[in-house]
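Page 47, continued from p. 46.
Same chain as before, 215 aa.
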Amino acid sequence: MSEIDVLQNRRKEPAGRIRQQNQVVIIAAAEEEFLTFGFKGASMKRIAERAELPRANIHYYFKNKLDLYGAVLGDIVEVWDATVSDINADDDPRETLTTYIRAKVMSSKNNPNASRIFASEMVHGAPHLSHFLNHNFRTSIKHKADAIQAWIDQGKMDPIDPMHLLFFIWGSTQHYADFGVQVLAAMDKESLSDEDFEDITETLTQLILKGCGLR
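Result:
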């Protein structure tokens, strides 16, 4: 199976409203299908049924299943990239990390399927994301880590490993999407409310900021 360059598979700006609506519907249906059956088990026929569109329409926008999967992954990466456009050395670390943590928690709340699909891709060795991980992703994360290190060098926060800080933020915030069933079982709930997610955000923010020596 050929590797997907995710950045080349991001959805281009559609020419018209109907085209845009169809692509949004198809992507949403594909997310459900890939989440349920994985890439190998997913069916273009079922995706068309989920989208309530003729199968020919699916192939009009996406030439095959691999192309559609690339678009789904590209959408996920694009949304996550937009979570925090950038982290810079001149930013206030407390304010920036607080914003970042909230955005990541809200992403788990509003689009848990995207997080689960991404996690599944990682668990299976990222066969469709290796180019992205080794190039654009690595560059972006290094920039964030360098900014955090600059805060440390300026005495704005305690000396900790910037990479591990980022990993901790990702793991703790995405847990509520990737392990949502476990969370609900532990909390004896059928679903998490807006109030629950506010509590999650406040708790994680307090833990992370204190761990960084930020008051």
